[in-house]
Amino acid sequence: MATITEATVIVTSPGRNFVTLKVTTSDGVTGLGDATLNGRELAVASYLRDHLVPLLIGRDPARIEDMWQYLYKGAYWRRGPVTMTAIAAVDTALWDIKGKVAGMPVYDLLGGRARDGAMVYGHASGGDVPELLDDVARFRDLGYRAIRAQAAVPGSPGSYGVRKGVVYEPAAASLPDEQTWSTEDYLDFAPRLLTAVRERFGFDFHLLHDVHHRLTPTEAGRLGRRLEDLRLFWMEDPTPAELQESFRQIRQATTTPIAVGEVFNSIWDCQQLITERLIDYIRATVVHAGGITHLRRIFHLAELYQVRTGSHGATDLSPVSLSANVHLDVTVPNFGVQEYMGHDPLAHEVFRPTYELRDGALYPSDAPGLGVELDEEAAARFPYDPKYLPVNRRTDGSVHDW
Ligand code: KDG
Ligand code: MG
């Protein structure tokens, strides 16, 4: 029996911060797992280095489910983004190893492909509506079949989702950027923005929009109703999701499909949302929801209730994590869409993924495991660079959801 002989945590910042776990076995096989938690990276790095790595040494890397249960139940303190991201990293690395040992891509270990590629949505954005429309045109020319549209809300500098560089990157500065939020301005602007997109480009592509947790259920229901004729693919994160039953009110108010889950870290965060069919898409990911093992469980539960998948895939999810998600995406019957923001080219000096973007879809390669290499020498050239996500303040100065 092979055993785990080494596990190292690699913190690197090629354009942005990433935390990666590398597990090595006595047969010399290595596996990678993403452990990046945006703005709280070192908490997960420490959880891994100080608490999980000592538990891994000498254990059988083939026993993935047992390892998951051991780390989850063995912690006593269950769930939470730090714990579940750390468990995810171990789980992902073990699937990578299992694939390499078997000589199979991870999707084959998961039962094989139900589709060749995973349709992705791209992120169109602009400082105003004309700029956003130009960006939507660009994504259409690139062959995207699903496009998310965000633009700066007039009067709210630093609006969510507006790209400044090559890719959208909200984490910045050594202290959180404090932004201004007006629900009234947003509710006035969002329908005008999305109507302009449909008026210019019609309906032959999927249109998505992210509310980013900022409305009350009443406001979200009203917005969803106003957007119905625009036939959105989804309205994302309409309200903070700690209170799962609040989605019932949105559901009753509108037929605009609802997506939620990028901040979820376990099946318990979405059990009621799924089993009461309060949402249409579950957006949990491999990296923050306990790895391939746990996300697969969430997706299978969702399948029973006709809820489809739409995993988070922002820049802070590393190519390791994105690859793991795409391997799972292509196997599940209830796949919906995969978010794909892409990465700063610097990230690819460290991470060498083998998935391919073609015709608006990501195709995993048939390389054994997850098909991603990490260049440790390159990683060492990009030291950790502390950054925070922004904080939102209402016009009266009080803190709002970001
Ligand atoms: O780290 C936070 C980002 O990943 C998040 O703000 C991006 O909402 C997001 C999305 O839908 O990609
Ligand atoms: Mg989002």
UniProtKB/TrEMBL annotation:
Residues 130-257 form the Mandelate racemase/muconate lactonizing enzyme C-terminal domain. GO terms for biological process: amino acid catabolic process; carbohydrate catabolic process. Transmembrane segments: none annotated. InterPro entries: D-mannonate_dehydratase-like, DgoD-like, Enolase-like_C_sf, Enolase-like_N, Enolase_C-like, Mandel_Rmase/mucon_lact_enz_CS, Mandelate_racemase_C, Mandelate_racemase_N_dom. Signal peptide: none annotated. PROSITE patterns: MR_MLE_1, MR_MLE_2. Pfam families: MR_MLE_C, MR_MLE_N. GO terms for molecular function: magnesium ion binding; mannonate dehydratase activity. PANTHER family: D-GALACTONATE DEHYDRATASE-RELATED, STARVATION-SENSING PROTEIN RSPA. This is Mandelate racemase/muconate lactonizing protein.
